[in-house]
Write a structure and sequence with these properties.
By secondary structure, this protein is mostly helical. It has helices at residues 4-12, 19-39, 44-56, 60-92, 96-100. α1 packs antiparallel against α4 (60-92), α2 (19-39) runs antiparallel to α3 and α3 (44-56) packs across α4 (60-92).
Length: 101
């Protein structure tokens, strides 16, 4: 299981008192920008990721969720990459016509 966001949450527990409201307001602003960018061309997922990371510094539940999501996403991307590599290898393999010709 991933540990990046939980570790970051634990590090932020000792942050000065003004950091928590600043992170929450920033996270909400990123969420708002992300929602707007969903409906117009733009990198909405970047702002959703930033908002999630900022909220993870304030909530152990969100930190754990993001750690599980990261592990799941890496697994899916690894499978997709392996599938893509397999397809490319088959496409580049010589055909029977190439062997005799």
């Amino acid at each position: 299981m991933g540990e990046r966001f939980v570790r970051f949450y634990q590090q932020q527990k000792n942050a000065p008192g003004w950091v928590k409201p600043l992170l929450i307001v920033s996270a909400l602003a990123c969420l708002a920008v992300g929602v707007v960018l969903v409906f117009i061309p733009g990198p909405a997922f970047v702002f959703f990721g930033l908002a999630g990371a900022m909220l993870a510094t304030q909530s152990i539940h969100i930190a754990r969720l993001l750690d599980r999501l990261e592990v799941f996403t890496r697994r899916v991307l690894r499978r997709a990459r392996d599938t893509w590599d397999s397809i490319r290898q088959r496409a580049n393999a010589p055909t029977r016509r190439d062997d005799h010709g």
